């Protein structure tokens, strides 16, 4: 994903550290939106599958909130190296939570074809 961000960021060589951070977070947000749209096409026929999907929708909402918080935090980063380092911990925590939500979503499905499709979509 980082190469995608660098290649899609105009004049990446002149961008400030907070710009790279923000671009990466926006790319993650875009991927989450794409995954959500893909998963909406799946058929959830069994009650357990439907419940797991409902849990995923809530987790995706939480993930988007974490990403929005991360973007807001990235906007407030100063370009000084020390500021980026000191605030990076919070950003990493929020982004780790997003990954955790993804894994929790997939773990809600029983092993099988649907679980594989969910993992691939995410």
TrEMBL record:
SMART domains: PMEI (SM00856). GO terms for molecular function: enzyme inhibitor activity. Residues 1-122 form the Pectinesterase inhibitor domain. It comes from the Eukaryota. Signal peptide: none annotated. CDD domains: PMEI-like_3. This is Pectinesterase inhibitor domain-containing protein.
């Amino acid at each position: 994903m980082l190469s995608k961000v660098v290649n899609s960021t105009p004049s990446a060589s002149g961008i400030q550290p907070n710009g790279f951070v923000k671009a990466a977070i926006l790319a993650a947000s875009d991927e989450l939106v794409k995954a959500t749209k893909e998963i909406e096409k799946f058929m959830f026929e069994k009650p357990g599958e439907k419940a797991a999907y409902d849990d995923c929708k809530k987790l995706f909402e939480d993930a988007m909130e974490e990403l929005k918080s991360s973007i807001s935090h990235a906007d407030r980063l100063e370009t000084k190296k020390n500021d980026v380092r000191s605030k990076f911990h919070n950003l990493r925590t929020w982004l780790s939570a997003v990954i955790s939500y993804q894994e929790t979503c997939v773990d809600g499905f029983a092993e099988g074809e649907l679980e594989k499709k969910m993992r691939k979509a995410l």
